[in-house]
Amino acid sequence: MSDYLSKAAAFAQNAAKLSKKVSEGIVENAREFGLEATSSGHYFDTSEEKMRDIKRQLDSRHDREKMDGLKRLIANVASQNLEIRKLVYIYLLRYAEQEPDLALLSINTFQKDLTDQNQLIRAMALRVMSGIRVPVISPIVLLAIKKCVTDLSAYVRKIAAHAIPKCYSLDPTQKDALVDIITTLLKDNSSFTIGSVIMAFNEVCPHRFDLIHPHFRKLCRMLIDADEWGQIAIMGLLLRYARTQFLNPNPNGPRASKKKKSKAFYSDDENSDKTDDSLENSFILDPDHELLLRSCLPLLQSRNSAVVLSVAKIFYHLAPIEEAYKLSKPLVRLLHSHREIQYVVLANIATMATQRPYLFEPHLQQFFVRSTDSVFIRNLKLEIMTLIATENNITILLRELQEYVKSPNKEFATSAIQAIGRCAIGMPDMAESCLNGLMKLLWSKNDAVVAESVVVIKRLLQLRPQDNADLIIQLTKALDQITVPMARASIFWLVGQYAQNLEKIAPDVLRNSAKRFINEDDIVKLQIINLGAKLYSLNPTNQVLNLLFQYVLNLARYDLNYDIRDRARLLRGLILINEQKEITSENEEIENAQSSDSVKSSVLKENLKQILLCEKEAPSEESPSAGRDRFTIGSMALVLNHSIPGYEPLPDWPTEKPDVSARNNLDETYSRSQAVKGFGSDSFGGYAPPSIYDKPLITNKRKEVYDLDHFYDSENSSDDNIHETSENEDEEDEEDEDEEISEEEDDDENESSEEEEESSEEETSEEETSEEEEGDDDDEQELLLEETRGKGKVREAPKSR
């Protein structure tokens, strides 16, 4: 019975599988034969059920269902629902390279959308069309860009500018046509599009400055109205342009005197002041150069740190020394932002401080290290403080660094000690006080602080070879407490280098070091061997030193480190070769060789002190930011301190003044009143706040300013014009009356009674004349209304009174 049931179950399973396969085959065949017979309208159905059906077809394992789903998806490009269009556009951009044939099916729909009334749809169609990475459609994309360049909407023109670099990367052979399009877009007076146009210019033809000549002043005026990233692109272009078209404003170098000589308030020596001013102001900036600096100055208050850094780049590379100080406060303000921004700003400040430290001297306290600063920010701040140290602020700086040395963080404490050493090297007058402070750190409980102090003291003592005996003796007394190998090696080097001044201390140091030679590190062993060689060269007749040095050499001969064994072998052959050895030989060649060796040994003996005790050059402590000054301020290469792909250095200043006539034929049609309201509508002539660069057009003697909005408003409402003319006439009548009254008041004051009578008569006459004039005005107004009704221009208006 059980066998029968198992066979029945297996048969049922096989039957179910067979029916499933048959049903799938029937459905597939029905879909294949019924596809052409059905209407294609179901492709354009955008209901939620159909969208779920499309998703199921795209996830199917069958290729035919995937193809059907793709066709239905592409058909939704023409959907009226904007959200569905966006989703379809995203899908097309993602899979266009994998399915180029299917992507080409949507090109016709995009071309139709370019003529849509909604500017968002026009812009979206161009954006997606230019984003499809299929080289075949590059001519179509180029035609679409040419069409959108002349669009009335500034938003569509902006998207057209964004599409230019995409088309150029897709087909570089279209460069000439794209350059013509960029030339057309440069004439656009909309501040909403100019940033994108300059970005396209930088991508396609960054060195075609002949296209910038006619629009230089317009770009300077539009700079403050452009968007933030557009401002960055414009300033980058204007920086490169200015370096090739203007002369160097600092011919004497960036380190020239930054301050003008101050004269007394009651000074009589005017001639000397004039000569000084003439020398300092001998270089006169080009007006366009000055316009560029004046246009960038308000952007130092921008909320975008990249914009502020771009303006700082302009002032650092283009401004005179007297004007460069304006970039310091805005850069210091950025130090209160995120730490990533702080690092970039501090790296640029450190580079500026290497060439122009006076820019940030007044802001020393802004670079003090906070407890929340990261390691990379702390190091940059320490570097900047040492670069801007002067005689006026060195005491404040050293007091602050002494507090940093007490930090429990060993790395931070050692960095502070290194900063003290850099201050001492940079300012020799303060070296004595720095040495005294470092000597006190030798008794610190922190081994890292003691070791770094010894290393820095060694560097400072090399700057002053004389009068170092007392300091070196103090260092030798601290040898028992110092355990860091680098610090011990530095002390042994100092004792050996200045052994002439330590006749009693140096041999005892060698004796104590020979006892611990086996337990010392390799770097310390090398310095002990050198110490013994230097002492023996100074006192070759001292038998005790000779035996002590040979003992050290014998210990080094069997050391595990081959560097130590080689050093011992070298010094043994250099020094101990002078010992007389009784060698008997009957061979004449050997005797000749020995005689030649004796000659060589005598030469070595004479120059032994110069070999071992030669004067070492004082160390030059380089800044960690050394080498960054070869890069442009604000560039990524400066932050990384090495060149990266795409980086181009600034061009050199021209030696002769270039021709200025190319910028004289300028397009001065831009004004801030043409600023864009927004991209919610196609109108782009909205209100904008006035600018100092706007010059109103004077059209009549009354200095009335006319613009297009006023013109169209007056044309559409002529009734207002009629009222204005009547009011102007009334004002003229009132002026005439005032003149008559002023003339009558100038009569004889003694005849007061007669004046009162005359004034009463005049008042009655004035009332009569005013009534007559009002009647005349009404008659004239009725005549004007009749004429306008005849022409059919305006509707009937009520009478004035």
UniProtKB/TrEMBL annotation:
Gene3D superfamilies: Leucine-rich Repeat Variant (1.25.10.10)
InterPro entries according to UniProt: AP3_beta (IPR026740), AP_beta (IPR026739), ARM-like (IPR011989), ARM-type_fold (IPR016024), Clathrin/coatomer_adapt-like_N (IPR002553)
Spans through the membrane: none
Comp. bias intervals (Acidic residues): 727-785
Keywords from the named record: Membrane, Protein transport, Transport
Residues annotated as domain Clathrin/coatomer adaptor adaptin-like N-terminal: 72-575
Coiled-coil ranges (or none): none
Residue ranges, compositional bias (Basic and acidic residues): 786-801
Principal subcellular localization: membrane
Compartment annotation: Endomembrane system
Cellular component terms per the entry's GO annotation: AP-3 adaptor complex; endomembrane system
Region of interest (Disordered), residue spans: 250-279, 673-694, 711-801
GO biological process terms, semicolon-separated: intracellular protein transport; vesicle-mediated transport
UniProt record similarity statement: Belongs to the adaptor complexes large subunit family.
The name this protein goes by in its record: Adaptin N terminal region-domain-containing protein
Organism: Glomus cerebriforme
Organism taxonomic ancestry: Eukaryota, Fungi, Fungi incertae sedis, Mucoromycota, Glomeromycotina
